[in-house]
Write a structure and sequence with these properties.
The chain is α/β, with parallel strands linked by helices. Helix content is 19%, strand content 27%. It has one domain: 3-Layer(aba) Sandwich (Rossmann fold), CATH 3.40.50.300. Strands 5-2-6-7-1-8 form a six-stranded parallel sheet, with helices on both faces. It has a two-stranded antiparallel sheet with strand order 3-4. The structure holds zinc ion (ZN). Its EC number is 2.7.1.21.
Length: 184
C-alpha cells in the first residue's frame, strides 16, 4: 500500500451561527459510534467540558482540548467542532497542520466552524482548511428578520471581542439584505 492510498479524508462543514453545524457533526459522530473521537476547543465551555450539544437537542461526548490530544493517535474517525476557536492563546500549535497530519495518517476528519466572524471577516483557520478539504459542505441558517436563507452572523451588541461565546442572547443569523454591524 502506498502513502497515497492510506490517506484519509477531510470534510469541512461551515456556515453562520444557527445553521445546524453542530447537529451535522453529532450525526457524523453517531454514525461511527465508539470509533469516533469528538474534539471541541477547551475555550468553549457552554455545554460543560465533555459534550457537544445542538440546538435540536442532540448531543455527543467530546474531549475539550487546548492542543492536539494523544487520544487522537491511531483514530480512524475524528470529529471537531468550533475549530475557529482552536487558535492561540486557546490552542497550542497549528490546528490546520495537526488535522493535516491526521488525514495523512488515514483518518476521516470532519471539521465544523464559522466561516466568517460577525463583521463578515473570514476566519483564517477555515480559509486554510477549505483549501485542503476533500469536501466542503456550506450550510445556511434562516435570517432572524425575514426567514430567508442567511449566510452571515450578526452580533447584537459590540463587545470588541472577535472570539466570544454566545447564543441568541448575543448573535443572530442574517441574510445579505438584513446583516448589520452591531449596535454600539
Ligand atoms: Zn433577511
Amino acid at each position: 500500500m502506498t502513502g497515497k492510498e492510506r490517506r484519509g479524508e477531510l470534510v469541512l462543514i461551515t456556515g453562520p451561527m444557527f445553521a445546524g453545524k453542530s447537529a451535522a457533526l453529532i450525526a457524523q459522530a453517531a454514525a461511527h459510534g465508539p470509533d469516533a473521537l469528538v474534539l471541541k476547543p477547551a475555550f468553549d465551555t457552554r455545554d460543560g467540558a465533555a459534550v457537544i450539544a445542538s440546538r435540536d437537542r442532540t448531543r455527543v461526548e467530546a474531549l475539550a482540548v487546548a492542543d492536539w490530544p494523544d487520544a487522537a493517535a491511531g483514530r480512524t474517525v475524528l470529529v471537531i467542532d468550533e475549530v475557529q476557536f482552536m487558535v492561540p492563546p486557546h490552542y497550542a500549535g497549528d490546528i490546520v497542520a495537526d488535522i493535516g497530519r491526521a488525514v495523512a495518517a488515514g483518518a476521516r476528519v470532519t471539521v465544523g466552524g464559522l466561516d466568517t466572524d460577525y463583521l463578515r471577516r473570514p476566519f483564517d483557520t477555515i480559509t486554510r482548511l477549505s483549501a485542503c478539504a476533500d469536501r466542503h459542505l456550506v450550510l445556511r441558517a434562516r435570517c432572524h428578520i425575514c426567514e430567508q436563507l442567511a449566510m452571515w452572523t450578526a452580533k447584537k451588541t459590540e463587545t470588541g471581542k472577535r472570539l466570544e461565546l454566545g447564543d441568541d442572547d448575543l448573535y443572530e443569523a442574517r441574510c445579505e439584505e438584513h446583516w448589520t454591524e452591531p449596535a454600539r
